Automatic annotation (TrEMBL):
Protein known as: DUF6265 domain-containing protein
Source species taxonomy: Bacteria, Pseudomonadati, Pseudomonadota, Alphaproteobacteria, Hyphomonadales
Pfam family, one: DUF6265
Source species of the chain: Hyphomonas atlantica
InterPro entries: DUF6265
Domain called DUF6265: residue spans: 33-135
Keywords: Signal
Signal sequence extent: 1-21
Amino acid sequence: MKHALIALAFSAGCTSTQLQAASPAAPPDHPLQWITDCWISESGAAKEVWSEAEAGYLFGYAVTLKEGGVSFFEQMRIQPGPLYVLNVYPKGIGPSKFVESLQGDQSITFINGAHDYPQLIHYQRLGDELHAHIALEDGTNRRDFAYQSCLN
């Protein structure tokens, strides 16, 4: 606890300039920048949020609401590398790792054939909408999601 208070006191004394100097900013032209936004389903029951890139990483979370409460949540992280890796923590448990298998201008597909379900996760930006689907690796048992920006 003492160490946490010391760290908190130290970090409170840092200026934003010092913080920016400590961690290099990712270039604004991150290949997956198109996913960055707050996305909500037409019904408002599902929301997915993706942060701006931080040192090449993208951080996200998804929430599904039912009867006024959270019925499902997951945290996500896209890690940079020769191939992007999507780490998913459904209900905070994980990670389940999915490796990039295909990337387009504004789309990306991740695969983990050893995972029970889903084995495939696909995202695609179409104008001001984000479309996603999950499925088995062969494309069966597909479930589609469509989101619009929360910020519009």
